[in-house]
C-alpha cells in the first residue's frame, strides 16, 4: 500500500494527481478509484493510501482512501 498526498483534484472533471511519498512520478487518480461513502472527492494536500496500478497513460491510483491518522 503506497502513501502520498493529493497534488490536485478537480471535482467537476473527477480526476487529479497524487504525489507519492518517497518520490517517483505523480500518480493519476480517477474519482471511481476513491473508496469512501458519499460524494467521492479529494482535497489538495490530503494524505491518502492507495495501490498503484497501470493505466493507459502511466501509473494510476487504485483503492484510494484517506490515510489513517
TrEMBL record:
<feature type="domain" description="CSD">
    <location>
        <begin position="1"/>
        <end position="66"/>
    </location>
</feature>
<protein>
    <submittedName>
        <fullName>Putative cold-shock DNA-binding protein</fullName>
    </submittedName>
</protein>
<dbReference type="InterPro" id="IPR012340">
    <property type="entry name" value="NA-bd_OB-fold"/>
</dbReference>
<dbReference type="GO" id="GO:0005737">
    <property type="term" value="C:cytoplasm"/>
</dbReference>
<dbReference type="InterPro" id="IPR012156">
    <property type="entry name" value="Cold_shock_CspA"/>
</dbReference>
<dbReference type="InterPro" id="IPR002059">
    <property type="entry name" value="CSP_DNA-bd"/>
</dbReference>
<dbReference type="InterPro" id="IPR050181">
    <property type="entry name" value="Cold_shock_domain"/>
</dbReference>
<keyword id="KW-0238">DNA-binding</keyword>
<keyword id="KW-0963">Cytoplasm</keyword>
<dbReference type="GO" id="GO:0003677">
    <property type="term" value="F:DNA binding"/>
</dbReference>
<dbReference type="InterPro" id="IPR019844">
    <property type="entry name" value="CSD_CS"/>
</dbReference>
<dbReference type="InterPro" id="IPR011129">
    <property type="entry name" value="CSD"/>
</dbReference>
<dbReference type="Pfam" id="PF00313">
    <property type="entry name" value="CSD"/>
</dbReference>
